[in-house]
Amino acid sequence: MTATISKQERLNSVLTSLRSAMPELRGALVATVDGLPIAQAMGEGADANRVAAMAATALGLGKRINDTLGSGSLTDMSVGGASGQVYIYAAGLKGVLAVVTPPGVNLGLLHMEARDAAEHVAGIL
Length: 125
What we know:
five-stranded antiparallel β-sheet; alpha+beta; 3 helices; 5 strands
């Protein structure tokens, strides 16, 4: 008999794999494009509901900017601060992946791992 793995478990597995590949990450979250958190592996003190809502809003704005400028489909965007950054990746038409990093993170590795994770999320959703 084969056990069925729920979408929630599969999404949590994607986030766990991402955090294992890059242990320096401060957090990762999957949300709907409506801003509802689905799965999260955030650090202490982070409000997943607020992060999900802001990530979805940023993704929507990024898509509008790309549409206006004729830049094609949005794949990712970032918001930076003095003590870290948030990278937001489109996860198909239904989801968004937000990744919180410390300053100086290896961007090549981050984009490779997070874009792969976003593709997995899109396939699950």
